[in-house]
Amino acid sequence: MKTLGIDLAGKSENPSGVAVQEGRHIKTEISKTDEEIIDVCRSQNPKVIAIDAPLSLPKKGNLREADSELIGKGHRVLPPTLGGMRLLTERGIRLADALSKLEFEVIEVHPRTSGEILFGSESRDDWISKLRKGGWNLSSEFSEHEIDSIVAALTGFLYLEERTEEVGEKEGEIIIPKNRLKIS
Questions:
Q1: Which of 9, 72, 115, 154 has its CA 20 to 30 A from that of 51?
Q2: In 10 A of CB 62, how many CB atoms?
Q3: Between the CA atoms of 61, 67, 73 and 77, what dihedral angle is there, to the nearest 10 degrees?
Q4: In the sheet where 16-22 sits, what is the strand order?
């Protein structure tokens, strides 16, 4: 079962992290344009694509129900309508629509929240260290975008195993893990 995680940048000239998870192996790369990202998705043919970007806008105000729920649980979330976040949201909506038309299942994730739940830490270095200790096969160096894409792909994997929950409803859902990841 293969999943793909994307840490999407608001502008296509900026780096987006892309991670492909299959079994306990995760491979990452940096992509920029929507076309590059779509090409990776086509070539990898994942069961689910987990995107770190808002995939909907609030009906009114600055926050969606999902954003408010995460904030209520103590997680930091930026409003999808705030400055550069609006660009990211609009790009996320376009990319998710294009991928859905290609018959991919697309979910919205929030790696910072997933990392806090899975690893009990906000530190990306802790996330990678704990994954390695848990037997995950990862390469040696990562950008923060690649690390976020790894956690997005891992959230997609847990989603397929029904080990996640959905926050939000009418304005869009964010998928988060139910429990901390057990590291052996």
A1: 72
A2: 15
A3: -100
A4: 25-31, 16-22, 2-7, 48-52, 106-108
Domain count, the chain: 1
Q: How far is CA 86 from CA 7, 42, 70, 78, 91, in A?
A: 15, 27, 19, 10, 9
Q: What does pLDDT average to in each consecutive run of 10 residues of the chain (184 residues)?
A: 97 97 95 98 98 96 95 94 94 98 98 96 94 88 95 97 94 94 66
Rounded Cα–Cα distance for residues 154 and 141 (Å): 18
Q: How far, in Å, CA of 68 to CA of 33, rounded?
A: 30
- 182 within some domain: no
What's the token pair of residue 128?
Answer: 């990678």
User: Per the domain annotation, does 183 fall within a domain?
Assistant: no
Contact between 137 and 25 under an 8 Å Cβ cutoff? The reply is: yes
pLDDT in tens, 96-138: 999 999 999 999 999 999 999 999 999 999 999 999 999 999 9
